[in-house]
Amino acid sequence: MINNDVLRSIRYMLDLSDGKVVEIVQLADPAFPIGKADVQAFLKKEGEPGCAECGNAVLAHFLDGLVFHRRGRDESLPPRPVEKRVTNNVVLKKLRVAFELKDVDMHRILADAGFPISKPELNALFRQPGHKNFRLCGDQLLRNFLKGLTLRVRGGS
């Protein structure tokens, strides 16, 4: 999925202002260079004047910041390195951690979005890429997961 679409979906789901998105990104790294103007450019539709591509670094910092925003930071642990390449699987993992979702929750969210998957299919998405049962998370699955999570967070509105 396009990083801009992921950012737009999560921003809508949590009803975040541009300033709040900047705050969340900077929770992961206070020195990361981002401002409200950058966020506004990321949120514009493709083809609109002033639209900018949301890079992997921005989305990775946003997802890490979202985990800290929702769950808090454990100061006893060393900071984890930020992902260099953000795949759909990484987005799914970060959202699972941020919202403290169990397998049952994930199945319910996907079923609510009209996209039920089996337990082995879901488990395969969270395996290491070198594992024989690893499965790439497709755009359709991630899109439906974001839709179902939005329904859950916003109460079906």
Question: How would you briefly describe this protein structure?
Answer:
This protein has helices at residues 3-14, 18-28, 36-43, 56-71, 88-98, 103-112, 119-125, 139-154. With 157 residues, the chain is an all-alpha fold.
Task: Provide structural commentary.
This protein is mainly α. 58% of the residues lie in helices and 0% in strands. Helix 2 (18-28) packs across helix 4 (56-71), helix 4 runs parallel beside helix 5 (88-98) and helix 6 (103-112) crosses helix 8 (139-154). It starts with a helix and ends with a helix. The model has no long low-confidence stretch (mean pLDDT 93).
Question: Which structural traits does this protein have?
Answer:
globular, 2 domains, 157 residues, single chain, mainly alpha
Element order: H for helix, E for strand: HHHHHHHH
Uncertain stretches of 5 or more adjacent residues: none
Strand content: under 5%
Largest sheet: none
**What distance lies between the first and last C-alpha atoms, to the nearest angstrom?**
24 Å
Percentage of residues in helical conformation: 55-70%
| Mean pLDDT reading | 93
Give the quaternary arrangement of the chains.
single chain
Shape: globular
- The DSSP helix count reads 8
